[in-house]
Amino acid sequence: MPPIKITEDESRRLSSLANSSMDLFPRVAHFLAREMERATVTDENNLRGVIRMGSKVTYRDDETGASREIVLVYPHEANIELSRISVLTPVGAALIGLSPGQRIDFETPHKRTRGLTVLAVSE
To answer: Which residues belong to any copy of the Transcription elongation factor GreA/GreB C-terminal domain (predicted)?
Structure first.
């Protein structure tokens, strides 16, 4: 797994979200919780170019080669038509804390392993 970085505040908030979502979305909640456990907690100054909540992200689906631009948001802000993807989705949980050039595998709702590569990150 690639190294990931996150602020203490986001780590705390996302860990809480994962724990409170275990009954409704067990697979992705466990994945998000594991990501928070392995993340390096750092301050704001060390997160330039790192995917955070609210970041605009361009990534490539490594299976299809298709690129997609999304904004990573909390579940209540998600809107697929506006490309606002919840961190409580497999793709959203996989993206948090990554930087351009990093690649990660994640499990789809159909229990298939997919990979994605981060191409760009902006605020």
So the answer is: 49-122
